[in-house]
Design a protein that fits this description.
Length: 127
């Protein structure tokens, strides 16, 4: 049984905060400008619902979802849900064979005379 939960998260925290600034700016601006420009400015307040993707509470839920995306993992078994830290993927970057060179270097010889003989033999200068 798959559950579809609402997702209010944005792609990034700065983008989500920008949506919050726009949403709260519309609400505050419409109320603050009502005495100056009249009640018509209150028509800007519902536009904040677009920026918030719902009410301000939905925006706050989205902020938490955005900040925790990829860091927390929810697992539900038999109606009991637990929240745990998600396993972090190991970054493995092979920069043009560097990993292979590091593996080969791990078997390097510590004795300078043997190392010199090995290098000279590898380049065809063995005596």
């Amino acid at each position: 049984m798959s559950s579809t939960k609402p997702d209010y998260a944005s792609r990034s925290v700065p983008r989500h905060l920008a949506r919050g600034v726009v949403g709260f700016g519309l609400i505050i601006g419409s109320v603050a400008l009502a005495p100056v420009w009249g009640p018509a400015t209150l028509l800007a307040a519902p536009l904040s619902l677009i920026a918030f993707r719902g009410c301000p509470t939905c925006w706050m839920v989205g902020l938490v979802q955005t900040a925790s995306r990829g860091r927390l993992e929810r697992e539900c078994v038999d109606g009991v849900c637990t929240l745990t830290k998600a396993p972090q993927p190991k970054a493995v970057a092979d920069l043009g064979g560097v990993a292979a060179l590091a593996d080969a270097a791990s078997g390097a010889v510590a004795d300078p005379d043997r190392r010199r003989a090995g290098v000279q033999g590898a380049v065809g200068m063995s005596s």
